[in-house]
Amino acid sequence: MKKILIAAGLMALPICASAANTKKPLAFDTIEAASKRFSPPLCQGDIGGLINAISDCYENTDRTSPDIQQCILADITITSQIMLEQEKRAALGKPDISQEYPFVSWPTFQKRFNYYVKPQFPSKGLKQILTYYKQDAAIFLVQLTNSCKKEGNTDSAD
After folding, report:
1. C-alpha to C-alpha distances, 26 to 51, 69, 73, 99, nearest whole angstrom
2. Is this structure's pTM higher than 0.85?
3. What is the pLDDT along the chain (158 residues), one digit of tens a residue?
4. Which of 55, 56, 113, 147 has its CA at a distance of 20 to 30 angstroms from the CA of residue 62?
5. Rg of the chain taking only CA atoms, in angstroms
6. CA diameter of the chain
7. d(CA 19, CA 126)
8. Cβ(63)–Cβ(126) below 8 Å
9. CA 76, CA 72: separation in Å to the nearest integer?
10. Which residues, including other chains, have CB under 8 Å from residue 158's CB and lie 6 or more apart?
């Protein structure tokens, strides 16, 4: 179920063609490496572990390294889905998930975005940049799903 929500939420990301022309899509190897890196906590249904894995990725990867794209891809994909899920939680009167996981709060995400992502797209806005990552994020989610299926763990698919 969580993967369905993630995939459905990804489809809601804004579409703006001008960002897609800014840079080439991420290399498949980068997307596959990100999937391998982040699938264990996702496959176990461990949202806290997934958030920690993204945070650790940033802490242990130089922002000028090509590997930083793994962190950015996972962050944009997963955090945007958590934020979309939060809108549903708020409508049901449930507590804000960022109280439990401050890493996914909007202000904290904006700080990461401005530090790691924005320098790659100096003349583009948030919506345009998210559009750039949209196709890569869709492939990333398929890779995550396939990784969980291979492991035989479907906790996050329910």
Report:
1. 22, 8, 9, 32
2. no
3. 454 444 444 444 443 333 444 456 789 999 999 999 999 999 998 999 999 999 999 999 999 999 999 999 999 999 888 888 888 888 999 988 888 999 999 999 999 999 999 998 889 988 888 888 988 998 998 999 888 888 775 554 44
4. 147
5. 15
6. 44
7. 10
8. no
9. 6
10. 1, 2
**Helix axes 126-151 and 68-91, enclosed angle (nearest 10):** 90
Which of 19, 154, 137, 155 has the alpha carbon at shortest distance from 79?
137
Count other C-beta atoms under 10 Å from residue 106's C-beta: 11
- CA neighbor of 10 nearest in space, from 106, 97, 81, 71: 81
CB 145 within 8 A of CB 153: no
For residue 155, what is the DSSP state?
Answer: G
CA gap 127, 157 in Å, rounded: 28
